[in-house]
Amino acid sequence: MGIVNVTPDSFSDGGRFLGADAALTHARRLIAEGADILDVGGESTRPGATPVTESEELARVIPLITAIRAESAVPISIDTFKPAVARAAVAAGATIWNDVTALRGSPDAPDVAAELGCEVVLMHMLGEPGTMQDAPRYDHVVAEVETFLLQRVEVALAAGVAREKLWLDPGIGFGKTLEHNLALLNALPRLVALGFPVLLGASRKRFIAALDPAATDADDRLGGSLAAALHGARAGVAAVRVHDVRETVQALKIAAALSA
Questions:
Q1: Residues 6+ apart with CB under 8 A from 57
Q2: How many helices (H) and strands (E) does the chain have?
Q3: Is 152 one of the catalytic residues?
């Protein structure tokens, strides 16, 4: 899953692809590099992020999704917690709703997900982006994340979302310390065993810099991102959400050949 952030403030590439032409060029490049899915987002969810209005988010993502769909059949995911944005994105050609709030962003979110009939990624996040990294605490992080995700599955199913449409994401970096992130990464086989496809989003995240203090800049975290992607693949995740598509595709190909 290649990341296309149409935002001015995302932690890694904020502002780089904010313009419609630049974003479309970036999307084309990710497809050419081997992305199986494009994840389009118009609102940053980095720690401390400032919310954007629904109209601004729509103005950022809908023209891009329309343009991508006009020239490619690649599956498109809309990274949003707003039901109206998800509805417009699906109308424009998206087929996956990637929701960092696990359909908690609005009371009607589960019903909208059922209405749209698209695939839905349910992600765990402690708190909300503005404050999620303010001393996050768990008693047993793996058990608590697992319980949360299964509870959100039940909510989605009760609203009418088909079971086969649901994905799970442990939310690496979303209200977690380094120790929490490492525990969840090591518990990926347990999450995969729940029977839903698991999406892993660890690309360029801050836990890499916590392990390698020299990687203060997000662009310096390629090695750690590849290590996390390979770890996720070995654990059986269904997809990895990444910034560096070409390098990740190559690493996964070589790992697959070696394991064969």
A1: 42, 43, 80, 82, 85
A2: 10, 8
A3: no
- Angle, alpha carbons 124-125-126 (nearest 5°): 125
Q: Give the whole-angstrom CA distance, residue 16 versus residue 158.
A: 40
CA angle, residues 40, 190, 166, in degrees to nearest 5:
40
Q: pTM for this one?
A: 0.93
Distance CA 39, CA 78 (A): 6
Q: What radius of gyration, in Å, describes the C-alpha atoms of the chain?
A: 17
Catalytic residue among 87, 165, 176, 205: 205
- The C-alpha atoms of residue 192 and residue 196 are separated, in whole angstroms, by 7
> Is residue 170 a contact partner of residue 124, using CB atoms and an 8 Å limit?
yes
Q: Which overall architecture, per CATH, does domain 2-259 show?
A: Alpha-Beta Barrel (3.20)
Per-residue model confidence as pLDDT tens digits over 138-169: 999 999 999 999 999 999 999 999 999 999 99
Closest listed residue to residue 66, CA positions, set 18, 29, 27? 27
For residue 76, report the phi and psi dihedrals to the nearest 5 degrees: -120, 130
Residue 165 is a catalytic residue: no
**pLDDT tens string 67-123:** 999 999 999 999 999 999 999 999 999 999 999 999 999 999 999 999 999 999 999
pLDDT per residue as tens digits for the range 37-52: 999 999 987 777 778 9
136: left (phi over 0), alpha (psi -120 to 50) or beta: beta
Q: For the chain, what are the domain ranges?
A: 2-259
